[in-house]
Every structure is written in structure tokens, then in C-alpha cells.
């Protein structure tokens, strides 16, 4: 997202489509019909030690950039494998 925002002026030379230019400069908001529910924790993803290290490094970079934030699970929240 940050790279798109930094280069949003360049997009104006590529297209004059309002939706594309707005999406690149402001981002896209998705409205969902309802809140998805996941009633149990997903099975752990099997990966090598090297891949786990790569994933940890990527997650740490996202935390530093404040693209994501760390939360604690109280057990009351719905969890999705997409965010674990």
C-alpha cells in the first residue's frame, strides 16, 4: 500500500480511470455483508525451519511498519487462519 501511495502520481501517466487513481491514492475499502465466524483454531501450517524464520522476519517487518498490530486472544474473539 505504501509503495502505491508513493507512486500514485506515476499512475496518472498510465490511466485516467477515476476508480484506479482513487484506489491507488486512497486505498480500497471492502464492505462485507456479515462478520465471518470461525469456531475453532485452524490446524498449524507445516513449514520448514527456514520458512518459519522467513515468515517471522516478514511479520516483524510488518509490525515495525505498523501495517499490523499484535493482539492477545482472550478466547472471546473470532480467529481466522488468514490473520494468524
TrEMBL record:
It comes from the Eukaryota. This is Uncharacterized protein. The lineage of its organism: Eukaryota, Metazoa, Ecdysozoa, Arthropoda, Crustacea.
